[in-house]
């Protein structure tokens, strides 16, 4: 695939496209990129891949490896019998990480957090449907979830649709609802054997401590309230998500969230991930409409 077509598919801007052109002309970086493309993207899941020293060139080499592997990814989705529209939607995720890395390091490339995730996307293990992403298959790993009457709602090992929340755009209930409906339709048509029990999500955005830092009508708070919370014993990467590479206590003109998060950290607070479960029957009864679901729970 040529650079112009890749730029369209990946939704690169002119600066990102120009940066890729420069990278492709650098023999040292491209030698690294060839290895990464072969060992991380095409030999997936990777085992024993060659390690390179962490520096700016490595981030650029991963960007180039993503370019070198784009045709492979398209063919992989075809082999999985997934529609082209889902592949195109999924490929739009990479540019979010390019821009995240540029904000934090000034480099147009794929940083450490983004690299293996991009390989996962390229190989169809995570798929994007509009505002949200989900795993192509996932078994619930947490403790059994019960309702208020002690009735089992979700058992450990059950098949679920595991959600991920890309960092781009507004997280409106309408957009999220459309994504959930698309996911359900995809599994019904392309994975009818997949007996999913509901949607789950594990994220820093689900930390109930954020409720004191965000307005009551925040879309994040609405999403938090759309299902049943379950504990996750993991410290979240909330500081990176909110502040990037900035010192939380030295941000100039902080947003309200940054200011309140800094105050929380100053008091010794620790951000945690939390989990959310929306039972299949509940979301289907609401027509995959999260606003309606919230009204039903009121």
Task: Please describe what this structure looks like.
The protein has 14 helices and eight strands. The protein has a six-stranded mixed sheet. The termini are far apart. 31% of the residues are buried. It is of the alpha+beta class. 48% of the residues lie in helices and 13% in strands. It is globular.
Task: Write a brief caption for the model.
With 298 residues, this protein is an alpha+beta fold.
Total beta-strand segments: 8
Derived from helix and strand composition plus strand pairing, the structural class reads alpha+beta
**Helix amount:** 40-55%
Shape: globular
Major sheet, described briefly?
A: 6 strands, mixed
- Indicate the radius of gyration in whole angstroms: 20 Å
Reading side by side through the largest sheet, how are the strands ordered? 1-2-5-6-8-7
Helix count, DSSP H or I runs of 4 or more residues: 14
Strand content: 5-15%
Distance between the termini: 51 Å
Q: Which parts are unreliable, with pLDDT below 50 for 5 consecutive residues or more?
A: none
- H and E order: HHHHHHHHEEEEEHEHEHHEHH
Q: Name the assembly state.
A: single chain
Features:
298 residues, two-stranded antiparallel sheet, 8 strands
